[in-house]
């Protein structure tokens, strides 16, 4: 698939990794649909930057943890650009949830955003792409689903589900739609991480450094444009954390 001229939806596309992916795709000529929930200012700034690159862009506010929200993003993209070629299921939350302080809502919210949202995206966008005869979906999971650490139990349960979800929809949507996942390691550290914590994470990574959002963008580009013979795969981009 050629990215230039394609329409790509990026959930959570206004900030952090999502922003970098949105802008990187626009630089390569894609029409970019930036989904956001509360980051309106940032979303419209990304859209403006995309338009200034000479590509089409659209910001769509929606809660992707609901069917109505995902349908709203899909329908807005179709209305604006005529169809959707690719979906990046990037929107995510990463709350610290110590075991002794867990609530039922912690589980429900993590499942809703981190698993149900991508599930709905694969289902609803996947059917649309299948009808069009082509499409690519990239889900974002986490390296830690293979080696989970403490204080993030609901997050890892949800992100672990992304691995199975990717394989399920790769089969369900074959042969017309390819579904893959990326498992990032330490790329952008949470804002509340101390300098010492970031240094410890880097030291625990075999490559001894924190990754760059460009690493995720390049992997995304590979899955969208670099190959049409990969589906159901989960690619680690983690500096070797999985094997450390």
Instruction: State the CATH topology.
Output: Rossmann fold
- Beta-strand portion reads 15-25%
Number of E strands: 7
Mean pLDDT: 96
CATH architecture: 3-Layer(aba) Sandwich
Radius of gyration: 17 Å
Question: What is the helix fraction of residues, given as a range?
Answer: 40-55%
Largest sheet: 7 strands, parallel
Number of helices: 7
Strand order of the largest sheet: 3-2-1-4-5-6-7
The CATH homologous superfamily name equals NAD(P)-binding Rossmann-like Domain
Write a structural description.
By secondary structure, the protein is α/β, with parallel strands linked by helices. The protein has a single domain (7-243), classed as 3-Layer(aba) Sandwich (Rossmann fold), CATH 3.40.50. Helix content is 47%, strand content 15%. The protein contains seven helices and seven strands, in the order E-H-E-H-E-H-E-H-E-H-E-H-H-E. It has helices at 16-27, 40-52, 67-81, 104-132, 153-173, 195-204, 213-226, and strands spanning 7-10, 31-36, 57-61, 86-89, 135-140, 177-184, 234-237. A seven-stranded parallel sheet has the order 3-2-1-4-5-6-7, sandwiched between helices. The longest helix has 29 residues, at 104-132. The protein is globular and about 50 Å long. It starts with 6 loop residues before the first strand and ends in a 7-residue tail after the last strand.
Keywords:
single chain, 244 residues, alpha/beta, Rossmann fold, seven-stranded parallel beta sheet, 7 helices
What's the short version?
This protein has 244 residues and is an alpha/beta fold. It has seven helices and seven strands.
């Amino acid at each position: 698939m050629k990215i230039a001229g394609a329409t790509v939806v990026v959930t959570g596309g206004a900030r952090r990794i999502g922003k970098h992916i949105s802008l990187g795709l626009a630089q390569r000529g894609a029409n970019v649909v930036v989904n956001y929930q509360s980051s309106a200012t940032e979303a419209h700034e990304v859209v403006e930057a995309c338009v200034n690159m000479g590509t089409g862009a659209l910001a769509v506010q929606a809660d992707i943890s609901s069917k109505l929200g995902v349908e709203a993003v899909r329908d807005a993209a179709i209305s604006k650009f005529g169809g959707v070629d690719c979906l990046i299921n990037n929107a995510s939350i990463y709350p610290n949830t110590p075991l002794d302080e867990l609530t039922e809502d912690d589980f429900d919210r993590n499942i809703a955003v981190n698993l149900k949202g991508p599930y709905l995206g694969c289902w609803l966008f996947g059917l649309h792409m299948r009808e069009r005869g082509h499409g690519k979906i990239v889900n974002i999971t986490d390296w830690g689903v293979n080696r989970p650490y403490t204080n993030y139990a609901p997050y890892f349960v949800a992100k672990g589900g992304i691995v199975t979800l990717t394989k399920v929809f790769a089969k369900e949507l074959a042969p017309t739609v390819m579904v893959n996942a990326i498992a990032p390691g330490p790329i952008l550290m949470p804002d509340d991480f101390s300098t010492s914590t970031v240094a410890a994470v880097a030291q625990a990574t075999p490559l001894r450094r924190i990754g760059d959002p460009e690493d995720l963008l390049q992997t995304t580009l590979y899955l969208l444009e670099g190959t049409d013979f990969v589906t159901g795969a989960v690619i680690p981009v983690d500096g070797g954390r999985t094997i450390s």
